[in-house]
């Protein structure tokens, strides 16, 4: 049986504050894997258990985000040697999420209780500065620190140009170039990771995340596959979000490759990520400047004088427009849900009133 403790599973003061004076008869555990119908839990002092949610927990959840997710801490009850049932989910701290793929305006939780995110991208044809910017915005919006890992430096082309581009457009984000396959730079990544903290590994398929997991673990635990030479794309060798405990005490959550990365919100992180635009925006004549056609716009002036790059400007506007669209969709959804609940309540009241009349 694996030995799990609260400390090596990432327990902290935030979580401790929620069990003080608690008289619950249940045990605590952390969700290591979310399967389709059950969860693999790591429980301090009790080892591993496959668990399902109680009917009450399922019934009370208004949406999927309220059910256990990888990284969550839960109250659970063990019945057999390796089986149990989940009664409740602990309050969450720093949740990494995105909009679900497709047209639905719903949130999909990637992982919870996250300290930092390693955004992995290959220096081959997998490299995409726009996707990096979008990823950083998403991570920062959750209040989490992003770290960029540029993989495959052993086969990458135009590396100096790509590194310069990343450091210029994301000057305030830590960047490390490595080759996970050749174990080059992996020690530098390990030095960035602090024992007892939870890190999420994210990136598109073909970036080399599984190879990096194996290099960080010091052994083969994740399956890897060759990518296509023509476009550096690979199959999803990681098919679910899975927690690994590294030898140095770090908790690492590996995630499947993300082809579609839509933001739920970018309110607080746009100006931080695009700090060149953000600093210029402070000098605009109008506080509500849209940076598109206003007189006295410092952003447009910098663009005209080449102080601001066209690509950075266009990426900023694109994400700002997307954020505004998502805000309107979320507001509309909230309005419709409110109206539906009011309609259901009025129907219930009429039903009660009608019954009283016939008594």
Structural description of this entry:
The chain has 10 helices and 13 strands. It is an alpha/beta fold and about 350 residues long. The model has no long low-confidence stretch (mean pLDDT about 85). The protein starts with 12 loop residues before the first helix and ends with a helix. Helices cover about 30% and strands about 20% of the residues. It is globular, with a radius of gyration of 24 Å. The protein has helices at about 15, 55-60, 130-140, 160-170, 185-190, 210-215, 270-275, 275-280, 300-305, 310-355, and strands at about 25-35, 40-45, 45-55, 75-80, 85-90, 95-100, 105-110, 115-120, 145-150, 175, 200, 240-245, 250-255. Strands 10-9-8-11-13-12 form a 6-stranded mixed β-sheet, with helices on both faces. A 5-stranded mixed beta barrel has the order 1-2-3-5-4. A hairpin with a 4-residue loop joins strand 4 and strand 5.
């Amino acid at each position: 049986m694996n030995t799990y403790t609260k400390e090596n599973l990432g327990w902290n003061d935030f979580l401790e504050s929620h069990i003080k004076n608690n008289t619950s008869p249940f045990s605590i555990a952390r969700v290591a894997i979310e399967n389709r119908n059950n969860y693999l839990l790591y429980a301090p002092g009790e080892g591993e258990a496959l668990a399902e949610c109680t009917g009450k927990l399922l019934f009370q959840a208004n949406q999927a985000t309220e059910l256990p997710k990888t990284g969550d801490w839960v109250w659970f009850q063990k019945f057999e040697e390796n089986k149990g049932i989940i009664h409740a989910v602990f309050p969450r701290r720093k949740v990494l999420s995105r909009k679900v793929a497709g047209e639905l305006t719903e949130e999909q939780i990637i992982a919870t209780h996250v300290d930092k995110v390693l955004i992995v991208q290959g220096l081959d044809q997998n490299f995409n500065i726009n996707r990096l910017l979008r990823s950083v915005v998403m991570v920062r919006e959750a209040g989490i620190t992003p770290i960029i890992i540029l993989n495959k430096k052993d086969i990458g082309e135009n590396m100096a140009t790509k590194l310069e581009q990343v450091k210029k457009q994301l000057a305030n984000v830590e960047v490390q170039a490595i080759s996970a396959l050749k174990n080059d730079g992996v020690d530098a990544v390990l030095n960035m990771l602090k024992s007892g903290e939870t890190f999420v590994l994210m990136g598109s398929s073909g970036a080399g995340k599984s190879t990096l997991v194996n290099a960080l673990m010091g052994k083969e635990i994740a399956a890897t596959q060759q990518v296509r030479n023509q476009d550096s794309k690979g199959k999803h060798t990681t098919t679910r979000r899975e927690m690994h405990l590294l030898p140095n005490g770090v908790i690492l959550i590996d995630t499947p490759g993300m082809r579609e990365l839509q933001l739920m919100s970018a309110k607080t992180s746009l100006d931080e990520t695009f700090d060149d635009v953000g600093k210029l925006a402070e000098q605009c004549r109008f506080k509500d400047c849209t940076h598109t056609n206003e007189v006295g716009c410092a952003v447009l002036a910098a663009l005209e004088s080449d102080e601001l790059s066209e690509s950075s400007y266009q990426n900023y506007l694109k994400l700002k427009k997307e954020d505004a669209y998502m805000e309107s969709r979320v507001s509309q959804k909230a309005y419709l849900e409110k109206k539906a609940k009011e309609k259901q309540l009025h129907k219930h009241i009429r039903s009660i009133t009608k019954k009283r009349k016939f008594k």
